[in-house]
Specification:
It is built from three helices and three strands; from the N terminus they run βαβαβα. It is of the alpha/beta class. Strand 1, helix 1 (43-55) and strand 2 form a beta-alpha-beta unit. The chain has a three-stranded parallel β-sheet, with helices on both faces. The model has no long low-confidence stretch (mean pLDDT 86).
Length: 106
Amino acid sequence: PAQTARICTVMNGHDFAAVPGVGARDTFRIAYAGAVYADRSPHGLFEALRRMRESGRVDFARVRVEIMGIVEPSADALSSIAARYGLSDVFAYHAPQPRPVAAQFL
């Protein structure tokens, strides 16, 4: 307790020096690695992407949304949400992986 003022918690901290560089990509990719909980819905993201697609101003042949990790209630539910917004062709789910693999994924 006497040292409380000297302690700082860094939530979801990461050592960027441990991540190899990523080269340029020709695809706009939204990638997330971690847990997706039922109370943190991706509907807003998928709705925005649906609107972008409908606007015709974005080439969706070059758009990807990829999620890696634990999904509540299930990965199938997440894929169903993507389908509901007409985004099955740009959405991919990847099972949870160890941290180094997830860092490469991002």
